[in-house]
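Quick one, T. Sequence first:
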Amino acid sequence: METTRVNEQGYTGLPTLLMALEICDSRWHVQFRCAGGTRERRKTVAAWDRQTLKGEIERAKARLGLPPQAPVLSCYEAGRDAFSIHRWLLSIGVDSRVVDSASIEVSQRAKRVKTDRVDLGKLMALLARVHSGELHVWHEVRVPSEEDEDRRRLHRERERLLKERTALGNRIGSLLATQGLRLALKPGFAQELQQLRRWDGQPLPAQLCAELLRMWQRRQLISQQVVQLERQRRSEILHGGDERSAAMRALMRLFAVGVDTAWLLDREILGWRQIANRRQLGALCGMTPTPYASGDSLREQGISGAGNRRVRTAAVELAWRWLRLQPDSDLAKWFMSRFGTGSKRIRRIGIVALARKLLVALWRYHQFGVIPAGARFKPAGREP
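Structure tokens:
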């Protein structure tokens, strides 16, 4: 479920206080304005000084001539503080908007002036336009519930651990290469490292050998943590009694859909995002076309790439597996008839189109039980 906002019906009966926040590590810059007016009030409070900010909101209402019960509409840019500020604002009755920073328009006429004061004024101007009913002013970040946000921790931690393990392995290989040596990263690495000899028959330098051993130990610890996370994930999928675990098991019954894909799709989008149609799903994953048409110039610039990169990457990988493991499905036949005889470049372009179609098909299967046409299922009783 998405975090619920304050009911906006109150805006029609009372004047609204607009509040823009510029979030910094040590302090928050705040700007107030009465909706439809020009008078403003600027203040700076210490970061997370909630009582002071609440007091400033009440003082701003009094200074700008608003009644104490006037609704408050707030906005701030998404950043490292994530959604904790948003949830606190909601808890005190403020209608909060979390804004995607990349969607805020910037003048290209000259060099950009960027200060906290300028950014705050820009946010307030955009907030006033949003309150007046103007559409497409910015893109708001969809805020998950605390439970849904916490469910995303496991696979994102696993992703970071795998990158760290790969980086350590590459670094070990690079350091050995400086001595003209290679050594497989497998059990017994520490013992074999002690026996390595350089071109002149001498052992590795003491400090280099010690560094390699420490990196190998860190890599082993990361591998153990990855195994623990994967066991926890599989246990939750196979033995979970909630609807979401059942939905993931249903996805994994399809050939080509494994634990990684089913878990990521559910945790990132399918399990909590309220998706209305296939266009929203495509935009959510950054797989919408970006045509360029001006005068006689007409070309396609590729997909937007502005959505969830994890889902987009997983969808493309799944599309390649789908072609191999679901060759008789309608989607695979469509790809082969359209791109199968083309060059490698054409097939790489076509696989993105297949990935989007496949995501739509899996969303319909996940939400409404519509089986992808021609898809094969794994044998009954087989553990995913």
